[in-house]
């Protein structure tokens, strides 16, 4: 029940070949030499399978009525609308070996993905059409090989019934990639943020200053990295993370790896200062003390110990500091420190302030030089003050006697109280006897006697009247107090001097506020 089919026939044997386009009204292939032939008929108007067979052309086959030989062909095969593609890959255009990989053949209507190996390389049943293909070599990270292929009837190889696609994948393996650093000041609505990024692992370190228009860190070797991003234009906390640079991470469109960073931390305007103290620049031990860090705007006071030594939240700026060591009286250690972003240690997040407090403890010099009735304190310095006192009057301060040098106007025993304002240290010198002045200082109304002179084991004092209070002090010529005595409401006083060794002594008497002295000798 078939209808006529136009097409092309080839009738051939080893000696002859006859090609003819057959139509319903032109279907006689004339003058074929006697012999046995194979024929191939290909239907027109589409892509149809060949119809093949054999034909004997001889005298017996000739129809006596038409003088022709009849060849009936039934071309009832369905039209072909797809074909298989044989993917032949190589690592070199001339001398390469087979290359395994993955191919994608696609157009707007169809996509075919196939893993190609040397022994599995036929992508079957691809619909007729024009396609782009992408081939990615296996066993590493290689650039894509791209191209186009037309799948149609004309492209089909009549021997294999496949369409041949030859691919040369001779590109060098990729071992690095570029990283596109995209920064923002907010995860949703932020603007671009410039800054510096460090991408590093044990083998490689890459540093780059990132801007909105310069943000590709090129040629980073494959591997896993830690990164640190520091925002520009102020002092901001680091943004840290990790990134894997490998073949899978490369964006096929841009050929870069995307790294998104949100730098939304508030700007840092202060820092903690770690105060590290020592009693020696090389081999010292920790030193406790008090530190003051100050400028025109701020002052920070802190008591520093070995285990409490962080002065927190110091506003950015340049400061002077003063450190005073605890546990004695020590000179101040002074210096300056800049608190800013550059000074912050990235590991501890603190600023280091090293202080060597190796000055010796302040010891007041309480020695005094004496020349007759002139006493001179040896302690000197801008922080030193003086107050001369009367040793015979319970160390009562002497009015106006506040200089380094003191000139006694009467015989007696005197000392100096020395104060160092650096730590409020106060010390009192030994008492010094002044006995070189005239002894004619007894008030006219006072009559007294001290006898015997020389004396042995006692001295007898007699007064012309009864005194309410009499105080007596006996000093050696070195100013040392050798004995003190007191009587009330009496006119006589006996002093026990048996403990005194032979020598000269100054006897100072204070009777109802009146003072007089006597030099006496013990035998």
What does this structure look like?
Helices cover 0% and strands 52% of the residues. With 523 residues, the chain is mainly beta. The strands form 10 sheets. Strands 28, 29, 31, 32 and 33 form a 5-stranded antiparallel β-sheet that branches. The chain is rod-shaped. The protein starts with 6 loop residues before the first strand and ends with a strand. Mean pLDDT is 92; it is low at 440-444.
Structural category is mainly beta
| Relative strand content | over 45%
Helix content: under 10%
Terminal CA distance reads: 174 Å
Give the C-alpha Rg: 59 Å
Shape: rod-shaped
Count of alpha and pi helical runs? 0
The averaged pLDDT comes out at: 92
Labels describing this entry:
523 residues; mainly beta; 5-stranded antiparallel β-sheet; 38 strands; 0% helix; 52% strand
Structure in a nutshell:
The protein is mostly beta strands and 523 residues long. It has no helices and 38 strands.
Mind sketching the topology for me?
Elements: E1 7-12, E2 17-22, E3 35-43, E4 51-57, E5 82-90, E6 101-106, E7 111-116, E8 122-127, E9 129-137, E10 145-151, E11 162-168, E12 176-184, E13 195-200, E14 205-210, E15 216-221, E16 223-231, E17 239-245, E18 256-262, E19 270-278, E20 289-294, E21 299-304, E22 310-315, E23 317-325, E24 333-339, E25 350-356, E26 368-371, E27 374-377, E28 384-390, E29 396-397, E30 405-407, E31 412-420, E32 425-428, E33 432-434, E34 448-451, E35 458-476, E36 481-496, E37 503-511, E38 514-522
Parallel strand pairs: 5-11, 12-18, 19-25
Antiparallel strand pairs: 1-2, 1-3, 3-4, 5-8, 6-7, 6-9, 9-10, 12-15, 13-14, 13-16, 16-17, 19-22, 20-21, 20-23, 23-24, 26-27, 27-30, 28-29, 28-31, 31-32, 31-33, 34-35, 35-36, 35-37, 37-38
């Amino acid at each position: 029940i078939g209808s006529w089919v136009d097409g092309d026939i080839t009738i051939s044997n080893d000696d002859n070949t006859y090609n003819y386009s057959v139509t319903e009204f032109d279907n006689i292939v004339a003058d074929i030499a006697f012999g046995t032939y194979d024929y191939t008929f290909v239907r027109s108007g589409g892509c149809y399978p060949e119809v093949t067979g054999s034909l004997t052309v001889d005298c017996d086959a000739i129809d006596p009525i038409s003088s022709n030989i009849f060849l009936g062909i039934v071309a009832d095969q369905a039209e072909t609308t797809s074909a298989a593609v044989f993917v032949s890959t190589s690592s070199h255009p001339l001398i390469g070996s087979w290359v395994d990989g993955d191919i994608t053949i696609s157009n707007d209507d169809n996509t075919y993905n196939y893993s190609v190996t040397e022994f599995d390389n036929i992508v079957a049943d691809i619909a007729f059409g024009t396609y782009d293909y992408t081939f990615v070599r296996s066993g590493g990270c290689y650039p894509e090989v791209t191209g186009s292929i037309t799948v149609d009837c004309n492209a089909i190889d009549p021997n294999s019934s496949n369409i041949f696609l030859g691919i040369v994948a001779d590109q060098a393996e990729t071992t690095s990639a570029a990283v596109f650093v995209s920064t923002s000041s907010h995860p949703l609505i932020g603007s671009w943020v410039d800054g510096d990024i460090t991408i590093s692992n044990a083998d490689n370190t890459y540093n780059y200053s990132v801007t909105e228009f310069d943000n590709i860190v090129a040629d980073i070797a494959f591997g896993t990295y830690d990164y640190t991003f520091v925002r520009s234009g102020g002092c901001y906390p680091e943004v840290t993370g990790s990134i894997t640079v490998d073949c899978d991470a490369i964006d096929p469109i841009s050929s870069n790896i995307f790294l998104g960073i949100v730098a939304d931390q508030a700007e840092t305007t202060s820092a903690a200062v770690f105060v590290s103290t020592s009693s020696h620049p090389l081999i010292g031990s920790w030193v406790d003390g008090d530190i003051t860090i100050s400028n025109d705007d701020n002052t920070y006071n802190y008591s520093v110990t070995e285990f409490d030594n962080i002065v927190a939240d110091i506003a950015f700026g340049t400061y002077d500091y003063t450190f005073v060591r605890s546990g004695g009286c020590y000179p101040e250690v002074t210096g300056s420190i800049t608190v800013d972003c550059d000074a912050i240690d990235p590991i501890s997040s603190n600023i280091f302030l090293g202080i060597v407090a190796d000055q010796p403890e302040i010891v007041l010099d309480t020695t005094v030089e004496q020349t007759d009735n002139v006493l001179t304190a040896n302690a000197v310095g801008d922080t030193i003050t003086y107050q001369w006192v009367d040793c015979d009057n319970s160390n009562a301060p002497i009015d106006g006697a506040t200089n380094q040098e003191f000139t006694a106007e009467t015989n007696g025993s005197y000392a100096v109280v020395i104060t160092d304002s650096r730590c409020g240290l106060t010390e009192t010198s030994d008492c010094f006897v002044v006995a070189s002045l005239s002894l004619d200082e007894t008030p006219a109304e006072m009559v007294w006697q001290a006898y015997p002179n020389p004396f042995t084991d006692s001295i007898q004092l007699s007064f012309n009247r009864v005194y309410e209070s009499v105080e007596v002090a006996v000093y050696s010529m070195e100013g040392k107090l050798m004995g003190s005595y007191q009587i009330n409401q009496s006119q006589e006083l006996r002093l026990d001097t048996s403990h005194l060794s032979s020598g000269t002594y100054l006897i100072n008497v204070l009777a109802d506020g009146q003072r007089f002295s006597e030099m006496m000798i013990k035998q």
